[in-house]
Design goal:
With about 100 residues, the chain is mostly helical. It has helices at about 20-55, 65-85, 95-104. It folds into two domains: about 1-55, no CATH class; about 60-104. It has three helices and no strands.
């Protein structure tokens, strides 16, 4: 503590802001370090944002037939779900109930 900013003398209690010259030096040094840290952080964030902008999504290289086939299968599944939900309102034959439980 005797070499610190608030140091008075050896074996004595520190007094807040006792040596203002050290305080000014310490604060200016701390501000410079903080400024450098913030600058590096901003550069890193900007670099990451540029990377995200330039990066293509994973599905950009899929062939169009694969995309269309996927859309077709999803449409078929949705239509089947709509049909089965509309038919469940009426009395269900045992065979259809068995098939629905088997497939879904």
């Amino acid at each position: 503590m005797d070499n610190g900013i608030d140091a008075v003398d050896g074996d004595k209690q520190p007094i807040k802001n006792y040596i203002e010259a050290k305080l000014i030096y310490f604060n200016s040094k701390q501000e410079i370090e903080e400024e450098a840290r913030n600058k590096l952080k901003r550069e890193k964030k900007l670099k990451h944002q540029q990377y995200l902008i330039n990066k293509l999504p994973y599905y950009a290289n899929f062939p169009s037939t694969r995309k269309n086939l996927h859309d077709l299968f999803i449409s078929i599944i949705i239509i089947l779900n709509i049909i089965t939900m509309s038919l469940e309102f009426y009395s269900i034959p045992p065979l259809r109930n068995y098939l629905i439980n088997f497939y879904f």
